Amino acid sequence: MSSAKLYTNEAERLSLYLIGKPCNSDVAIGYSDAVTKLNMALTPAQEQTYKRMVGWRFYMRAIDGGLAFTNRESVLRKRIFVMLCLLESSKYNTEYFLPRKRSPFYFFGIGFNVAYAFFTAIIGVLIIKLNNIE
Amino acid sequence: MNSPENPIEYIVVGSGLTGAMAAETLVTEGANVLMLDVAYKNETGVEYPTTDFLSIRKESDNQRQLFLGDNFEGVPWGAIKTGAQLTPGRKYIVKELDKWLAIAGNTFFPMESLAYGGLGNAWGAGCYIFSDAEFEKMGISKSKFTDSYQTVGDRIGVSAGIDDALPYTVGGLNNILPAIKPEAGMLAILERYTRKKQALNKKGFYAGVPGVALLTKDKDGRKAFSYNDMDFWHDNEQSVYRPWMTVDKLKQKPNFQLAERVLVTRFEEAGDLVKVVCTHTETNEEKEFWCRKLVLCSGVLGTARIVLRSFKQQQTLPLICNPYVYVPMINWRRLGVETERHKSGMGQAVLFYDKKQDNSDVAMAAMFTYRSLLLYRLIKEAPLNFATGRAVMQYLVPAMVIAGIHHPEYGGSSKFVRLEKDTNSATGDRLFADYRLSSAEEKEVLATEAKFFQTFRSMGCIPIQKVYPGHGSSIHYAGILPFSANEALYTTAENGRLHQTKNVWVADGSSFKYVPAKGISFTLMANADRVAKHALKK
Is the CB of residue B337 less than 8 Å from the CB of residue A99? Predict the structure, then answer.
C-alpha cells in the first residue's frame, strides 16, 4: 500500500475513534502532511503496535489511555493528538468540539465514559508494561 | 550618517512597552530619537477574518491554517512551558531566542522577545497602579509616578470596573473608560462575590472587573472592543493596546527613526558620548551607533546582558519574578450550557487577597474563561484517552474558568543571574539564571493559594488542579539594577540614570526592588515615561 493511502486509512480510523465518524479528505491530507512535518516517524516496534491500534478500536482506547499515565509524550499518542487537532480545526466537525446545550442527565453519561476510560487505561497500562511499548 | 562627529541625541533600545513609551515621551518633546531593535514581525501572511470566533469556527474553510499554522506550529506537545498560549500568528514573538538570547539554568524559564513591540504583543493588557506601600518596597516614592501613570493611561486608553477592585487596579486614574462586559458565567461568579461580600472582605478578598488597556470606545483610529473572542489570534481592530501601535505612529515623525535587525550587545562611554555596539542579526556584522544619551528599554534580562557586557566586571545580579500558578476551575452552574457568541478572551474578573487590609502586600488572581484557544490544548492535559478527553472537555468548557494566581515577590540570595561564556551562542555568551524560593517563601505561597482556593469555592468555582509552569512564567521581571542612593556599580539612581555612567538611563523594570503581584506592565510604562523626562533634562 502506498504511504498516502496508508495515511488516509489511518486518518479515517483515527477519526472514527475520536469523533465516531470518518474524516473528510482535507483532514486526511492534513494528517499525512503532519506526519512528515512534525517528525512522527515510528520505530518498527511502534509501527507494529500502531497497526494493531488502528485496526482495533478497543486496543486504541486502551493504549492511548495507558500511555496517558505511563508515557504522555509517546509518538503513538502524538499521532492521535495531531489528528484530534486537525479534526477540531475543520468546520465539518464543530458539533464535536464547540460547547452544546446538554440535559442535566448528560453528566451521568460523562461520568460513565470517564469510568470506562479508566478501566480501559488499566488494561492499557498492563499491555504497555508487558510489551514494553514506548 | 551617524558617527562620533554626528551623534544622535537619544538612542532607545527596544520597541516593547517601555521602549515605545520612552520614545514617545522623547519624540513629543522634540528630541531626535533612534530606536534600535531586532523587530521581528509576523511573517506568516495569514489574515484572520474580522468576524467572531464562532462564525469562523462554523464557516471558515482554512481553519487549519488559521489555528494550527502552515507548519503545525500551533500544535502543542510536551510539558506546558512559559508562553504556551502563543498562537501561530504570535509565534514570531519568541523567534530566534535560543540563538540571540541564550539562557541557561534549570530553575528559571523566562520569556523574552526580539519582536517588533516585544513582549507587549502577548501582554494580557492588565493595568494596575501600585500603592504607596508597594512603591516604598520597590525603593521609590509613588509621588514620582503619579503624572506618568496619567500620561500613559491617556495614551493607551484604560477601561476598568468602578467596583471593589478599583483601589487595587487603577483607582486615582482620570479618564477611565467603561469596563468591559463580562460574559454570563463570569457575571455569575461576581454576583456570588457580591452576595458574600461582607464575609469575603473581612478575610481580605476583593473582586471586580480588572483595569485593562482595552478600548470600550473608539480612540485615535483604534476601534472599540467588539467581543469577537479572537484576542489570542490577532489585533485587527487594535482595541487592545500593543506597543507597535505607538512605534508605527512615531515612524511618521521626522525626529524618529527605527533601525531594524539590530541587537544591542554593549555600550561604552567616550567623553560625553555613548558608543552603542550592536550585531546585525542577518549579516552577523558588528555595527556602532553614537548618541548623547542611551535609554535602555530592553527588558530586565536583556538589560542585564548589555550592562554586564559593558561593565566587564562579572558578578551576579539579583533577580525578582512573581511566583505564578494557574488553576483550571469548574463553575458548575454553567455545565451543559452554550457559550455566548460575543465574549472576551481577556481577563474578565480579578480577585485580590489583601491579608493585611492595607494594600501593601497583595496577591492577585486574574480570571479568564476558556474557548478561543480551542479544546485540544485542554484535552492534551487531561489524564484520559483523547476520545474520552474530547467528550469530557466539550462538556466542561462552558463551565471552565482559568485563574492565574500571582504572588508578590522580594529578592533573595537564591535568585540571581550572571553572564557566562558560551562559544556555541551567537553572542559568545549566555545568561545563567537561578531562581529558588526559600522554604518560608514557599510556605507563604502555598498558604496564600489555599486561601484563594477557599474563596474560589465560595464563589461557585471548584478548582481542579494547580499547574506550575515554573519560575519565570509570570513574565514579570525586575531587580537586577536596584535603586540606590550611592553611586555603586550595577545600581540605578532614582531618576533612572545607571550609576557609574554619565549618559546611560535604565527605563525598564530593572531598578525595582520588589514586584507587587498586580501586573507590572502599566507601571513599567509609567517608569519609562518618567525616566525619559529625566533624560530630557540638560
Answer: yes
Backbone dihedral region of B187: left (phi > 0), alpha (psi from -120 to 50 degrees) or beta? alpha
**Would you call A37 helix, strand, or coil by DSSP?**
helix
- Give the rounded distance of the alpha carbon of A6 from its chain centre: 16
DSSP class of B267: E
Distance CA B325, CA B449 (A): 9
B273: β partners: B270
State whether residue B338 is helix, strand or coil. coil
Q: Based on the structure, what is the number of domains in chain A? A: 1
* Residues contacting A79, CB < 8 A, separation 6+: A10, A14, A35, A40, A50
A99–B374 CB contact, under 8 Å: no
Q: Cα–Cα distance between B227 and B237 in angstroms, integer?
A: 11
Q: Would you call B413 helix, strand, or coil by DSSP? A: coil
pLDDT digits (tens, 9 = 90+) for B103-152: 999 999 999 999 999 999 999 999 999 999 999 999 999 999 999 999 99
The verdict on A102 touching B (C-beta cutoff 8 Å) is yes
* Partner-chain residue, chosen from A99, A102, A120, that has the shortest CB–CB distance to B339: A99
Cell of A27: 483532514
What DSSP state is assigned to residue B65? I
- Continuous segment of H or E residues that includes residue B256: strand B256-259
Lowest mean pLDDT among A101-105, B34-38, B450-454: A101-105
Q: What is the DSSP letter of B191?
A: H
Q: Contacts of residue A90 in chain B, CB cutoff 8 Å?
A: 63-64
Comparing CB atoms, the residue among B68, B78, B390 nearest residue A18 is B390
| Single pTM value for the model | 0.94
Radius of gyration of chain B, Cα coordinates, nearest whole angstrom = 23
Distance CA B50, CA B87 (A): 17
In three-state form (DSSP H/G/I as H, E/B as E, the rest C), the secondary structure along B318-341 is ECEECCEEEEEEEEHHHCCCCCCC
Query: What residues form DSSP beta bridges with B295?
Result: B12, B505
- Give SS3 for B206: strand
Interchain proximity B68–A86, CB inside 8 Å: yes
Residue A1 has pLDDT above 70, yes or no: no
Structural domain for A39, as ranges: 3-131
Q: How far apart are CA B25 and CA B19, in angstroms?
A: 10
> How far apart are the C-alpha atoms of B405 and A29, rounded to whole Å?
41
For residue B504, the model assigns a pLDDT of: 98
Contact B465, B137 (CB under 8 A): no
* Average pLDDT over every residue of B515-522: 96
Contact B156, B525 (CB under 8 A): yes
- Chain segment B241-279, per-residue pLDDT in tens: 999 999 999 999 999 999 999 999 999 999 999 999 999
Distance CA(B251)–CA(B246), nearest Å, equals 9
Grid coordinates of A116 = 470506562
Question: Residue A3: is its pLDDT beyond 80?
Answer: no
> Is B310:B266 a contact under the CB 8 Å cutoff?
yes
